[in-house]
Amino acid sequence: MLHTAQKIELDHGGGGYKSWELLKEIRRILKCKTEWKNCEDDAAVLPTETLMKTGFKLGKGNLVFTTDAFIVNPIFFPGGDIGKIAVCGTINDLSVMGAEPLGISLSIVVEEGFSKKDFLQIIKSINKVSQKAKVPIVTGDTKVMEKGKIDKIEITTAGIGTAQNIISNNGAKPDDFIISSGDLGDHTVALLSERFNYKTKIKSDCKPLNLEIKKTSRYLNACKDPTRGGLAANIVEIAKKSKVKIILEEKFLPYKKEAIALSEFLGIDIFSFASEGRFIAAVSPKNIKKVLGILKQFNPKAKIIGKAEKGKGVFLKTNLGGLRPIEMPKGKLIPRIC
């Protein structure tokens, strides 16, 4: 049993002295150099001159805003934890839109009795991603729920960024190559291996994508990070919105043998396996060599997995030459993977 001082108590979310103490610890861990101001007040302030440094111009640039909630189970998994995935998820949602992330807000709801050591470890994971991606946590809030009213911890993040040109899901064109920035599905494998005590060396692919997308964004016609719903949901969305037909090649599918084995063992479609540090994109033939050259500096597994053409629908070209339709996942998908 943990001593009371080593647990999160209701008073830690009550707004009084214990709240102030806990926030002081959080701020000490998350403290980093940033051009945001008033980060310890009720709202953070970003001077307009900082926006201008990113190339943003009134009437020309774009402010990009996103938010997400995270209820991961298990909280700690091979390759990460709920804190890491929360910050990576928000950074990546901005990045695949072609935005440069500028700052993130962090809202945490934690259960009474939660280990303070685990709580601070989650904060340290958040800080590590923030420092690596050079995207500061600029404002936030912490609340404590009575024991049994919430399953351990929930994190909500929001992020803001700027973009000169928006990458939309409807931008894929006939003859575009479809690429993956690396092997897919490793995040789902990592979580399911913990839930089912399945032995594997695979770790979650969870990581921020802003640096590699920043170097390639001008060449991407469409871009998505295949989180919930995996490759199937995201590639079908791109095809439908872009009004193109996409054919994926079975021989080029970006899944490890272990991931495929687990999907077959559990009877879950491998195409619905989620990633938290990968993206898929449509790239024109004239830019494909340049894009792959850049991406392979970050991940040697980046590759072409298919091609777009006139028509509609998404299909898998099997090794025998047949075409099998790939549809949007239906029914109850894998819960609490992000």
Question: Could you explain the architecture of this structure?
Answer:
The chain is α+β, with helices and mostly antiparallel strands. The chain folds into two domains: 4-163, 60s Ribosomal Protein L30, Chain: A (2-Layer Sandwich), CATH 3.30.1330.10; 177-325, Phosphoribosyl-aminoimidazole Synthetase, Chain A, domain 2 (Alpha-Beta Complex). It contains nine helices and 13 strands. The chain has helices at 17-30, 48-53, 82-95, 116-133, 186-195, 210-216, 230-242, 257-266, 288-298, and strands spanning 62-70, 76-77, 80-81, 100-111, 137-145, 153-163, 177-180, 220-224, 245-249, 280-283, 303-309, 313-317, 323-325. It has a seven-stranded mixed β-sheet with strand order 8-10-7-11-9-12-13. Strands 1-6-4-5 form a four-stranded mixed β-sheet. The chain has a two-stranded antiparallel sheet with strand order 2-3. Helix 4 (116-133) links the parallel strand 4 and strand 5. Helix 1 packs parallel to helix 4 and helix 3 packs parallel to helix 4 (116-133). The protein is globular and about 65 Å long. The two termini are 29 Å apart.
List the helices and strands in order. Answer: HHEEEHEHEEEHHEHEHEHEEE
Do you know the CATH topology of the largest domain? 60s Ribosomal Protein L30, Chain: A
Shape label? globular
State the name of the first-level CATH class of the largest domain: Alpha Beta
Largest sheet: 7 strands, mixed
Distance, first to last CA = 29 Å
Structural class by SSE content: alpha+beta
CATH architecture classification of the largest domain: 2-Layer Sandwich
Mean pLDDT across the residues is: 91
Q: Percent helix among the residues?
A: 25-40%
Poorly predicted residue ranges = none
Whole-number radius of gyration?
Answer: 21 Å
